[in-house]
Amino acid sequence: DGSKLWLRYQPLSAKQVKSLSMVISSVLIEEPGDCTAITELQYAWKQLTGKELPVAASLKDYSLVIGTEKSKLIQSLGLQKELQTLGSDGFIIRTMKSKGNRITVIASKGENGLLYAVFNLLRNIQLYVPSSNILRTIQLGSSPFTFDIKEVPSYKIRILNHWDNLDGTIERGYAGHSLWKWDELPGKLSPRYKEYARANASIGINGTVLNNVNASPEILSNAYLQKVKALAEVFRPYGIHVYLSVNFSSPAALGGLSTSDPLNEGVQQWWKDKAKEIYGLIPDFGGFLVKANSEGLPGPQDFGRTHADGANMLADALKPYNGIVMWRAFVYKSSMEDRAGQAYNEFTPLDGKFRSNVILQVKNGPIDFQPREPFSPLFGAMTRTALMPEFQITQEYLGASNHLVYLAPLYKECLESDTYCSGEGSTVAWVTDGKLFPHPLTAIAGVANIGEDANWCGHQFAQANWYAFGRLAWNNELTPEVIADEWIKQTFNQQKEFVEPVKEMMLASREAAVNYMMPLGLHHLFAWGHHYGPEPWCTVPGARADWLPSYYHKADTLGIGFDRTLDTGSKAVGQYFVPLRNDYNKLKTCPEQYLLWFHHVPWKYKMKSGQTLWNELCYTYDKGVQQVRGFQKTWDKMESFVDAQRFHEVQSRLKIQSKDAVWWKDACLLYFQTFSRQPIPYDIERPV
Ligand code: GCW
C-alpha cells in the first residue's frame, strides 16, 4: 500500500549488505548523543540489513562517525572550518582516513543538518549500493564506494502550506479530510503526525503552515494555540517549524477591538500581545502567512493602508522572537484591469518598503496555478524585497487526485525561467534563492496535497509531487528526471523494466495534461467553482467577469486568446524585462506554448508546424488524449512489478483520466468550433 510513501526501506540483498559492510560497519556518535538522526538511521538500517548498526566505543575501520561541530571527534578531523560555510541545515558526508582507519563522516553545524544527512545517506544506500561484490564509486568520490557529498539547501525556509480548515475540510484538498484532528487535540495525538514530520524531514522540508490562507480568526484563540503547540512538539524533533495563516481582522473579530487598522496603536498592541502568547507556548514558532485584500478577505486596504503597512505591523510584532511574515501577492480585483497584471501593479511600487522579516509569497504564474503559465513578472521586478515562489502541489487545476500529473517539470519550468532582470541568467531560482539579491530570508512554499487518505495524497503518483517539491526546495538544480528516478526506486522498486517506462510516463504527464486541457497558452477554461472539468462556455448570471472562462479565452469568430500586447492589448506583456517583453509581444516570436496567453490569434493563423491555429488546436487536444491512452498501456504492462492494490488503484484512475481527457478535447473543440466554424480534421479521434 502507499502509506509508507518513499520511506519503505526494502531489504537489501545479502550481497548488497556485504558490500555495505565494507564501507560502514559501526556507528560512532559523540555529540549530540540521542537525536532523531540516530533513531532514523538505526530504524532504517534494521529494515535494510536486518540488523542493528553496532555502536562503537572508539574509532575503527569502517566507522560511521556522526557529529555536529561541537563534537571533539569532528573537530579533530579538521572539518570545523568547512562546517561554518554550511549554515544550520547543510551537511557533509565524506569518506576519510583517520589514524589509519577508513571511515565515513557525517557532520553538520546543527542537529537538523545531521537529520538531513542521514536521510541523504539512506537514500544513497538504497539507490546506489552495488549489488555485486565489485565496489563502485558513488556520488563524487574517487576511490571505490566513496562518499564525498556536501549539501547546502537552496532555500532557508522550505515550507508546506495546508489549506486546512478548522472544521476538518480542506480547500482544494483531494485526499480526504485534514490530518489535523482539531477536536482531539491537544489531548490525543494521532500517530500520523509523527509520520508526517518524518516524511517531510526526509526530503528537507522544515516548515508547515497548518491552516488555510482563507483563515479563521479562531486559530489564534488560546484554545487553538494549545492544539498548535501539541503539533509543534511532535514536529520539533524533525526540524519542522510551525507557522499559522492569520486573518487580518483578528483584532476585531477575535479580540473584540473596534478596528483592525494596522496603524492603530491598540491593534498593534493586540498583535504584540498575541505574539507573546504564541511564543510563550511555542518558542520556535515560525511566523504568519497572510492572504489580505484578496478574494474578499480583509486587509490593510480596508483602512486605507498599504500591503506594506499591514505586513510591517505584523513583522514588528514577531521580530523580537525572530518570527517572519509571508505576505501573499495573490491579489486581484474585479475591474477593467487585466487580472494577470494586477499583482505587479499593486506590489512593485512598494518595493523596499517591507521590513527585513517580511517575504512576499508569489504564485509561480500571474493568474492561478494553471496547467501552464508564464512565470509571474513580479519575479525579478522587486529587487529590494525578499520574494518566495508558491507552487501548488495539490492538483486544483490538474485533475485533482484522479489524474496522474507529475509536477516537477512545471516547478522546474518556472524556476529555470530567465527573468532577465539583471541580464541573461537571472532565473526565477536565482532571483529567489539569494544568489542574485542578498536578502536575509529565502523561502519556497508548496500548497500541500496531503490528507487523511491511507496513501496520504489520493493518487499514488501524487506522492511524487510532494516528494518533488521537497527535493527542489532543497536543491533547485535537481532535474525532474533525477527526482522521478529517486522517487520510483524508493516507492516501488528498482527493476529497470519498471523504472524506465514509468519514469517516461511521469515525465510526459504534465505536457499531456496541458495538451488535453488547455494547450497553446489557453488558461482557466475550468468549470465553475470546483475547477475539475471543462466549461469554456460557462455563464453565471451576476458573476464576476474574471471568474468566467470567456474572460480568458476570448474566443470569437475572428480568433481566440487574450491580447496582452502593448499596442492593442492589456499591455501586461510590458511587465516582463527585455527581451521577453519584445519576444512575447510579437506574434511571430512569442513561444507557441504561450501564444494564446499573450495574443488574440486568427483561427487561420499559420503555426510553426504549417497547420492553421484551429487545426493545431485539434491535433494538440488529440495528442493529449493519445498520450493518456499510452500511459494506460504502459501501466498495464507493469502489473507484475507492483502490488495488486497499488496497481489497480493507479489503473482505475488512469481510466478516469483518459475518459476525462476525451471529455476535455470534445468539450473544448466542439465549443470553440462554434466560433472557428472550421471542420475538425478527420485524422484525429473525433468527438462523438
Ligand atoms: O485559485 C484560488 C483557489 C482558492 C484559493 C486561492 C488562493 C485558498 O481557487 O481556493 O484559496 O486561489 O490561493 O488564495
Q: What does this entry show, briefly?
A:
The protein is built from 21 helices and 15 strands. It is α/β, with parallel strands linked by helices.
Overview of this protein structure:
Residues 5-121 form the Alpha glucuronidase N-terminal domain. This protein is α/β, with parallel strands linked by helices and 688 residues long. It is 36% helix and 11% strand. The protein has 21 helices and 15 strands. It has an eight-stranded parallel β-barrel with strand order 6-7-8-9-10-11-12-13. Helix 20 (613-636) runs antiparallel to helix 21. The longest helix has 33 residues, at 644-676. It is globular and about 80 Å long. The two termini are 38 Å apart. The structure holds 4-O-methyl-beta-D-glucopyranuronic acid.
Q: Give the total of domains.
A: 3
Roughly how much helix do the residues carry, as a percent range?
Answer: 25-40%
The overall average pLDDT, rounded, is 95
Query: What's the CATH class label of the largest domain?
Result: Alpha Beta
Going by CATH, what is the homologous superfamily of the largest domain?
Glycosidases
Parts with pLDDT < 50 across at least 5 consecutive residues: 132-143
What is the terminal separation in angstroms? 38 Å
Overall shape: globular
CATH fold title of the largest domain: TIM Barrel
Major beta sheet summary: 8 strands, parallel, barrel
Strand order of the largest sheet: 6-7-8-9-10-11-12-13
Proportion of residues in extended strands: 5-15%
Per CATH, the architecture of the largest domain is Alpha-Beta Barrel
> Which cofactors or ions or other ligands sit in this model?
4-O-methyl-beta-D-glucopyranuronic acid
Specify the structural class: alpha/beta
Number of helices: 21
Tell me the number of strands: 15
Supply Rg: 26 Å
Subunit structure: Homodimer.
Catalytic activity: Hydrolysis of (1->2)-alpha-D-(4-O-methyl)glucuronosyl links in the main chain of hardwood xylans
Active site: 295, 368, 396
Family: Belongs to the glycosyl hydrolase 67 family.
